[in-house]
Amino acid sequence: MRRQLKKTVFQNGLTLLTERHSEFKSLSIGIWVKAGTRHERPHEAGVSHFLEHMLFKGTEKRTALEIAREVDQVGGEFNAFTTREYTCFHLLLLSRDLGLGMDILSDILLDSQFDQEEMERERKVILQEISMVEESPEELAHDLYFELIYGRHGLGRPILGTETSIRRMRRSDLLRYFRKHYRPDQLIISVAGDVSHETVKKKLKSLIKKNWSGRRPGPESRRELGFEPAPHVREGCWWIKRSTEQVHLVWGVEGPRYHSRDRFAALLLNVYLGGGMSSALFQEIREKNGLAYTVYSSLSPFIDSGVFTIYAATGMNQVPLCLRLIEECAYKLRKSLLSEDELQMVKDNLKGTILLSSDSVESRMSSIAKNEIFFNRFFSVEDVCQMIDQVGPADIRRVARKILGKSTPSILALGPKPSKQVSAKLRPTLLRR
After folding, report:
1. Quick check: 380 and 388 in contact, CB under 8 A?
2. 57, 113, 265, 372: which has the highest count of C-beta atoms within 10 A?
3. Can 5-202 and 237-426 be said to share one CATH topology?
4. Which of 19, 40, 52, 284 is the catalytic position?
5. DSSP class of 217
6. What is the residue-wise DSSP string for 197-214?
7. Which CATH architecture has domain 5-202?
8. pTM above the 0.70 mark?
9. Is 52 one of the annotated active-site residues of the chain?
10. For the domain bounded by 237-426, which CATH number is listed?
């Protein structure tokens, strides 16, 4: 695996990563931009995601339809996503279609037109996306939770932006952000599949020229690129009124960042608590007590911060008990050591998930890019499994005490106004907003 991975940093700062897999007929190509929601200024909220949409909407030599048709004609898939710390455009093609994929990606990076009419149409699409979130209580609860714990910082703003910010977005805002962040030294091209590193390099001639039209040359500081250090996660309890059938709970504490030495112990803790149907939370809240159909935990690590959350959707009268059971599951993990058998089951679960995903060229393309972005080094699947195996029961308890014991949890409840009986049981757990 180490011999298969190759890396080249060109003179203009563009980074190319390739990982050859001769057993696959498919090829995954990703362009990773080191810019996401946290790099936006308040008045730019949603611009990263808006740009993600606009790069599909036509170049000097291809219309939006022609971009879609060229990919469809070879049975490929072209998509993109925006996160709080990066944006990715990714293509899945047959290996024989490498040239087509690189030509399309080069085209959208260098010659996107940002047509005003296309922008107005896409503005309507994004406003519909925002409306969909408003009608999805689970997604809305998480968006509101991040807004409350991170405040006005970029990590707290919704990735889609707000209705107000999207309505106010101008073409000049898109162009300014595009020219600032979509430049060689802020981009990684990641390729996984049956193709050699040298073959990919030959397809990058237009992207490795010294200067790109309209882009500022040379590196800038992280602050100049919009990076602001993350604040401490805010502690608090909030009840946000919405006319939903259930109450959507998000219980969370500050978690490990990407570089934490405890990240693998935290991943195992997450799997044990809420990572599947055999997890402690699923068994306690759903199987034993029938309080919720959906319950899970998740880790959200960032470069300089992190959040560990538990989500459950339950009936109004069951909110107090559900919160108490969440606290009890967390307390047990802080107090008692997992048995060797329990820990081995969790390890096998996590390693199985990683090994299954490694059978996909898309997963491999994504993995090598994220390793570069967050660690500036490569971790093979074997490396990751070895680090998981090194975690012992005492490590899990230590991390549980660190994550679940030191901080007061921040709790959000999204749902109808609580009854007097429920309010009495919640005080002083939740403050109504």
Report:
1. no
2. 265
3. yes
4. 52
5. P
6. HHHHHHTTTTTSSS--TT
7. 2-Layer Sandwich (3.30)
8. yes
9. yes
10. 3.30.830.10
